TrEMBL record:
<keyword id="KW-0274">FAD</keyword>
<dbReference type="InterPro" id="IPR020946">
    <property type="entry name" value="Flavin_mOase-like"/>
</dbReference>
<dbReference type="Pfam" id="PF00743">
    <property type="entry name" value="FMO-like"/>
</dbReference>
<dbReference type="InterPro" id="IPR050346">
    <property type="entry name" value="FMO-like"/>
</dbReference>
<keyword id="KW-0285">Flavoprotein</keyword>
<keyword id="KW-0560">Oxidoreductase</keyword>
<keyword id="KW-0521">NADP</keyword>
<dbReference type="GO" id="GO:0050660">
    <property type="term" value="F:flavin adenine dinucleotide binding"/>
</dbReference>
<comment type="similarity">
    <text>Belongs to the FMO family.</text>
</comment>
<dbReference type="InterPro" id="IPR036188">
    <property type="entry name" value="FAD/NAD-bd_sf"/>
</dbReference>
<keyword id="KW-0503">Monooxygenase</keyword>
<dbReference type="GO" id="GO:0050661">
    <property type="term" value="F:NADP binding"/>
</dbReference>
<protein>
    <recommendedName>
        <fullName>Flavin-containing monooxygenase</fullName>
        <ecNumber>1.-.-.-</ecNumber>
    </recommendedName>
</protein>
<dbReference type="InterPro" id="IPR000960">
    <property type="entry name" value="Flavin_mOase"/>
</dbReference>
<dbReference type="GO" id="GO:0004499">
    <property type="term" value="F:N,N-dimethylaniline monooxygenase activity"/>
</dbReference>
Length: 446
């Protein structure tokens, strides 16, 4: 008979919601702690920014989301739904293949309502402590805080048999390091705190980074800014003007910054900039977790975690959903949530603690041997789709359509083929039909 436990989920974003659904399907008693007042996590746009725009002050009030006003999804909606609940166009909504962020929020709210998840969520409850009752027990104590009378914090403790951490990975900024950074007199911010372009009118802006946020923000601000300079890490980037932009250049990384406002790049070029925006990603952050050193975060490696989810010595009573990146995020989150729920109910077995620990060590040694850096631990090396295939096999479910993987592999090429407006110009439905009729063969993605 399936086992049923009292389970807590931390966070009501995409990962927390789908995990809560899976846990309930498996018959567990679920409570979701959500520090905000609504579901959606990242997708809940907030025009507010933090008091410290670089996010270095540990005592700052945290704004969870990193969305900017203009954000449209960077993967087609066709790969952003759940396996049995696709992200379909709805009447009165944003029907584009790459909708704006509000459409994703609406999708998640509908999902939560349609599966009766709202009643499981304690809104306004921030988890500030998570600890095992004692060294041998598998019971957990969650400490939460809520705003009470006169906005004073009220603290409460709650006991659970299992806890799943779904607190998101895109809130705690990772900042670029370069000599002179702290004494540089201009405005510096992380993309976490970028919302709209107006404040950059007539400014000379340096953007650090080469990911989706750097590209989106560049596109957002170059029509208003005087100049935009994108600094990119890696040996191949040299000074060049960006195609189709009169006032935007690409450089190698920043060499140093000076007190007189000058920013010097490794390619030898120099600009007198007003603003530096660090589009340099995020760190994993679990400020509430007291694990006595069993789980550590070291250079973007959360570990040890068996298959990026279970710490071997605490499994299955503690788990993490949503850590991998550079993959199909929604699919991986859903598969992980299903896996955790079925492991807890006893329908899917885990290996022994020793075997799980060995598997983690094997991954680390493999990474070392192949020169794959530590901070890429959760990038699913060497083949991101092996991980999905492995999860699907554990769950014994029908594998997702292959075109979804091809789509992820192709998106960068397609964006460069169509240029800045790829979201509007790419006919995604036609592309899927063509891939289907070519028998799901991979297109050239080099
Ligand atoms: P989150 O959405 O961050 O949710 C975490 C939740 O936990 C939040 O509600 C938060 O309030 C809550 N929480 C945190 N700490 C606590 C605590 N201590 N106590 C209680 N509650 C807590 N993915 C795509 O598939 N397509 C895209 O186009 C795309 N674009 C993106 C653009 C940006 C700018 C960013 C930052 C991410 C994007 N992503 C995209 C990835 C996106 O993060 C995932 O799709 C997904 O939303 C992650 O969900 P999550 O539940 O793991 O985290």
């Amino acid at each position: 008979m399936a086992q049923s436990y009292k389970v807590a989920v931390i966070g009501a974003g995409m990962a927390g919601l789908v995990t809560a659904r899976e846990l309930r399907r498996e018959g567990h008693q679920v409570t979701v702690f959500e520090k905000g007042q609504r579901v959606g996590g990242t997708w809940l746009y907030n025009p507010q920014v933090e008091s410290d725009l670089l996010g270095l002050d540990p005592n700052r009030e945290i704004v969870h989301t990193s969305l900017y006003r203009s954000l449209r999804v960077n993967l087609p909606r066709h790969v952003m739904g759940f396996l049995d609940y696709p992200f379909v166009k709805k009447e009165g909504g944003d029907s584009r293949s790459f909708p704006g962020h509000a459409e994703v929020l609406r999708f998640l709210e509908d999902f939560a309502r349609d599966f009766g998840l709202m009643e499981l969520i304690r809104f306004g409850h921030e988890v500030v402590g998570l600890e095992r009752v004692d060294e041998v027990s598998h019971e957990w104590v969650i400490e939460s805080r809520t705003r009470g009378m006169e906005s004073r914090w009220e603290f409460k403790e709650h006991a659970f048999e299992a806890v799943i951490v779904c607190n998101g990975k895109n809130t705690e900024p990772n900042i670029a390091e370069f000599p002179g950074r702290d004494a540089w007199p201009g405005l510096q911010m992380h993309s976490h705190n970028y919302r709209t372009p107006e404040q950059f009118k007539n400014k000379i802006v340096v953007l650090i980074g080469n990911g989706p946020s750097a590209y989106d923000i560049l596109k957002d601000i170059y029509p208003l800014a005087r100049q935009v300079h994108q600094a990119i890490r890696g040996p191949d980037f040299q000074l060049k003007k960006l195609k189709n932009h009169d006032n935007a250049w690409q450089h190698s990384m920043i060499e140093c910054a000076h007190k007189d406002g000058k920013v010097v790049f490794q390619d030898g070029s120099i600009v007198d900039a007003d603003v530096i925006i660090h589009c340099t990603g995020y760190k994993y952050h679990f400020p509430f977790l007291k694990s006595n050193g069993i789980i550590t975060v070291d250079n973007k490696r959360v570990g040890p975690l068996y298959k990026h989810v279970f710490p071997p010595s605490l499994a299955p009573w503690l788990s993490f959903v949503g850590l991998p990146y550079l993959t199909l995020p929604v699919l991986v989150i859903e598969l992980q949530g299903k896996w955790v729920a079925k492991v807890l109910s006893g329908k899917v077995e885990l290996p022994t603690e020793e075997e799980m620990a060995y598997s983690v060590q094997e991954l680390y040694s493999q990474m070392e041997k192949t020169g794959w850096p530590k901070h890429h631990t959760h990038k699913l090396h060497p083949d991101k789709f092996d991980y999905e295939t492995w999860l699907v096999a554990q769950l014994d479910i029908t594998p997702p359509e292959r075109w979804k993987q091809i789509m992820l592999m192709s998106v960068i090429k397609i964006a460069s083929d169509y240029g800045d407006n790829y979201r509007d110009e790419w006919n995604v439905d036609k592309w899927i039909q063509e891939i289907d009729s070519s028998n799901n063969k991979s297109i050239d993605v080099e």
